[in-house]
Amino acid sequence: MPRFAANLSMMYNEHAFLDRFAAASRDGFNAVEFLFPYEFRAGELKSRLDAHGLTQALFNAPPGDWSGGERGLASLPGREDEFRRSIDTALEYARVLGNRKLHVMAGLISGDRAGETQRKTQRDVYLNNLAYAARAAQAEQITVVIEPINTRDMPGYFLNRQDDAQAICAEVGAPNLKVQFDCYHCQIVEGDLAMKLKRDMAGIGHIQVAGVPERHEPDIGELNYPYLFDLIDALGYDGYIGCEYRPRAGTSAGLGWLKPYLDAPR
Question: Which of 68, 64, 4, 75 is nearest to 36 (CA)?
Fold first, then answer.
């Protein structure tokens, strides 16, 4: 039976961020994820998790200057020291929050030097940085995940395809480096989700869902999520499925899709 984590960066935006933990718990979630925790003290977030019986499933390492348009550091030449400091910061938070999954964002391809040479340079930096992150996380028994992101929502992002992500993980060769399989992004870029899940499940460390194409609830749009949830179960995935979508209206009002899974015997 699938286990779901509410993504508090996208869901429950009708509440202040620290109040979203309680709202998710009231709606039956027992886990949460979000993009970044760094505006808050780790202990403050941990107290919200504990007060509402929630597990922290995932968050992202610092991405650089997010408000300035940066989308990760891992593939950016010349930013290696900053990247290593960002991993140290992320692991400090993970120790407090107790999560065992950390998403490391690749970053954008440099627009002024785009091309095969630039991609190769960034790929070399990316592999070296991922190897560092995986080594540092291994000591904490944490899995690092990398996520292919679609080019419509995030133009210029370095990593877009599942096969590329799996190849990068294989080349780095760290047992705790895996792929974050976001069904929304994969459908937009590639499609054929069921076959990719079957092909790659051994290398998948986290799964996320949203309706396609508008990124609303997973019962809206072109994907048959009940079928995919059954398949994910059958393939033996036992992690959380992150609900990284933007509710059409109020978050709680749009959770009819979740009720059968909350009510099902376990």
Answer: 64
Asked about 171 being catalytic, the answer comes back as no
- 264, exposed or middle or buried, with CB in 10 Å at 0-12, 13-18, 19+? exposed
Per the structure, how many domains does the chain have? 1
Find the CATH number of the domain harbouring 48.
3.20.20.150
| Chain segment 83-141, per-residue pLDDT in tens | 999 999 999 999 999 999 999 999 999 765 557 788 899 999 999 999 999 999 999 99
Which value, to the nearest 10 degrees, does the dihedral of the CA atoms of residues 202, 204, 208, 212 take?
A: -80
Evaluate whether 2 touches 229 at the Cβ level (below 8 Å): yes
Assess whether 147 carries a catalytic annotation.
yes
CA-only gyration radius of the chain, Å = 18
Catalytic residue among 39, 190, 222, 244, which? 244
Provide the angle, in degrees to the nearest 10, between the axes of the packed helices 116-138 and 162-172.
60
Tokens of 137: 């996380």
Among the listed residues 147, 171, 217, 222, the single catalytic one is 147
b/e string for 73-83 if b means 16 or more Cβ within 10 A?
A: bbbbeebeeeb
Per the structure, the complete domain to which residue 229 belongs is given by 3-263
| Distance from the Cα of residue 146 to its chain's centroid | 8
DSSP 226: H
Which residues have CB under 8 Å from 127's CB, separation 6+? Answer: 168, 171, 172
CB neighbour class for 110 (10 Å; exposed up to 12, middle 13-18, buried from 19):
middle
pLDDT tens digits, 106-121: 999 976 555 778 889 9
Report how far residue 171's alpha carbon sits from residue 30's, in angstroms, rounded to the nearest whole number. Answer: 35
